[in-house]
């Protein structure tokens, strides 16, 4: 029997880009959540208003806004084709059947890295590039950052979680946190052709970058110098608040990253205006060298 032809890589739609109002000095790359798109998410962020009443473009005329859109792929959770960066079985326990995440994350890493490289080629230093996202976009962007292995200007994560968090916490010597019910869950999904042993092996194997970022090599450890801002509403019914908190403790206490955490009480799954915008602006000024005009 002839071997099955390899699947074609998913195609990413054009990126939604808003040019800076003034001389280009910094770039913000933000990834949308599952079921959303770059133009939809980006249009809202562009007009998001802090307590000062001034929008981000008016505060940062040198800031370029980049909002990529993920490719469409089949969602096991929702059992339909939709915009999602990678596949998952459960939003409550995102580490279940984690082998399903790998294809999407591999493609996302390549795509987002290409966008970062475009900015660098245009003369923007890596230290002036801020990466981040919301929900699944936050999870994806964090994976991109750690996989890249080099410091960026900053990271902003909203209402998200950390892919393969249990693997990272184990390597760091932390106890297993939220996001996983049990390792046997990988064998529960019967919609794929791998054998049970293959599924378990794939599930258990951590991504290559996890071991890499724990290496003593100075160049590899450079990524851990990226300042991180994380925020989450404690009434989030889409991505459990505990998953966000688990991401924070893993980055700060496991990987030793300079990580700032903000909790918004009785707030759900989104970014909170003006509070969260105020907190991000403060973080940019104190940690990323991005000062409002």
From TrEMBL:
Pfam families (alphabetical): Abhydrolase_2
Database matches in InterPro entries: AB_hydrolase_fold (IPR029058), LYPA1-2/EST-like (IPR050565), PLipase/COase/thioEstase (IPR003140)
Ranges for domain Phospholipase/carboxylesterase/thioesterase: 16-170
Signal peptide segment: none
Cellular component annotations (GO), alphabetically ordered: cytoplasm
Highest taxon listed in the record's lineage: Eukaryota
UniProt GO molecular function: carboxylic ester hydrolase activity; palmitoyl-(protein) hydrolase activity
Family: Belongs to the AB hydrolase superfamily. AB hydrolase 2 family.
Protein name: Putative phospholipase/carboxylesterase
Highest classification ranks of the organism: Eukaryota, Fungi, Dikarya, Ascomycota, Pezizomycotina
